[in-house]
Design brief:
By secondary structure, the chain is of the alpha/beta class. The chain is built from 15 helices and 19 strands. It folds into two domains: 180 residues, Rossmann fold; 225 residues, Rossmann fold, CATH 3.40.50.300.
Length: 421
């Protein structure tokens, strides 16, 4: 098992393990992704990174494959298990495809599971017998698997079928070999200091880049209220919060959606320079991402983006797992709420939102979140025999982030935005 902080290069580790298994050891290696998109991304990375090697993408017949994968001459696509290679090879498929794998050539030498913390143990048990050696690679701080049935009967089982497979495996076999990556290649040091303490108390790591390695610069200070969080980023902070006046809202907060779009427009209009080491690039819309908790919030932001900003990537936190952008904007999941539900308190959701950026992150929220957290502290519905309490851990992480931002003077109050002009 290999635990990884955000942006540590775990997908690159998966690539290297697969290629070494095939080319150095002469083995048949199966690579397990969690979604079709992740399988396509792995195939694309392997095809481009190792152009002299051949790889196999195993998928269903009616699957639409992206053009950038189709154009790679060293990616062979198959739909039938009878077409699987028999000699040294690397075969990529998602977990569900492997779970229904039937036919000849059932045995692989090595199984590498990418994003393993997104794979529930019941799904892992369906594929664990396909290889004699297994490597689970994943981020323990990400969103746990979505389970759509009642799991009450396994609530006191730390190795239940609903538990992420690395946790379940460690509960059953405490002596299993467990390693961790000690650095984040993506996050700047300022972000690592906050994110590691809030979400990874048992996984110490540092940033690979120096204090000035990732920054934003602009020619002159801003002139509008929306420029105050941007100017704070210019002064060296990598995470700031833009706080609107307190108000209880529906999931779709029109003022907050306007503010998100207004911030994006100011970032682009001010011709912000994005630095990565000694290299600087002008910030463009395709370098900006927006993470929201709900699909309706995603749609509210998308419909307000002007046509020249259509390349801004707006998605839910679930879809943002594994992705990154130089600059991220976050619709805080507790913004405008009158209480704190387990879904909105989920530590993995906030962790994903706050760890997708390489340079800077602006959290946008209504005021009053800290006060609401203190009013609705979780009762501690713990289960005997299970050390984790996800609701309390999420509450603790949310409160730590709010206190840390306030202590560092990184919460800027901005007025309601009435126009995007």
């Amino acid at each position: 098992m290999l635990d990884s902080p955000p942006g540590a290069g775990k997908t690159y580790v998966v690539e290297c393990l697969a290629v070494q298994s095939s080319e150095l050891l002469g083995e048949r290696c199966m690579v397990v992704a969690q979604t079709n998109e992740q399988a396509f991304d792995l195939a694309r990375r392997l095809g481009r990174g190792f152009p002299r090697l051949q790889f196999t993408l195993f998928l269903r017949k009616d699957m639409v494959v992206p053009n950038e994968v189709l154009e790679l001459g060293n990616i062979r696509m198959i739909n039938d298990s009878r077409d699987l290679p028999t000699g040294p090879s690397v075969v990529i498929a998602n977990a569900e495809k492997w779970a229904y794998f039937d036919g000849p050539n059932l045995s692989f030498d090595c199984q590498v599971v990418d994003e393993a913390y997104q794979l529930p143990d019941f799904r892992f048990q369906q594929i664990a017998g396909l290889a004699r050696r297994i490597v689970l690679v994943g981020d323990p701080g990400q969103i746990t698997p979505v389970i759509r049935c009642d799991v009450g009967r396994w609530k006191d089982d730390p190795a239940g079928p609903h538990v992420p497979c690395p946790q379940a495996l460690a509960a059953r076999h405490p002596d299993i070999c467990r390693l961790s990556l000690p650095v984040s290649r993506r996050l700047p040091p300022d972000t690592v200091r906050i994110v590691q303490s809030a979400f990874y108390p048992n996984l110490p790591f540092v940033s690979l880049c120096g204090p000035e390695g990732r920054k934003l610069t602009a020619g002159s200070p801003g002139e509008t209220p929306l420029d105050s969080p941007i100017d704070r980023l210019r002064s060296g902070a990598s995470i700031v919060m833009a706080e609107l006046p307190p108000r209880v809202t529906n999931p779709v907060d029109e003022d907050l959606a306007n503010t998100l779009v207004g911030l994006i427009m100011r970032l682009v209009r001010r011709r912000i320079q994005v630095w990565d080491g000694h290299d600087a690039r002008l910030l463009e819309p395709n370098m900006v991402g927006v993470a929201c908790a709900h699909v309706v919030q995603v749609n509210a932001v998308r419909e307000r983006l002007p046509r020249n900003m259509s390349q801004v990537f707006v998605e839910t936190s679930d879809r943002f797992q594994g992705l990154e952008r130089p600059v991220m904007l976050v619709h805080h999941p507790l913004s405008g709420r009158v209480d704190a539900s387990r879904f909105h308190l989920d530590a993995g959701r906030l962790c994903v939102m706050m760890s997708r950026h390489k340079n800077a992150c602006i959290i946008v929220a209504r005021g009053g979140i800290r006060e609401m957290l203190l009013r609705y502290a979780p009762v501690g519905d713990r289960v005997l025999g299970v050390p984790q309490d996800p609701e309390f851990e999420g509450w603790r992480s949310h409160l730590f982030i709010m206190d840390e931002l306030r202590r560092a003077g990184r919460i800027m109050t901005i007025p309601r935005l009435t126009s995007l002009a």
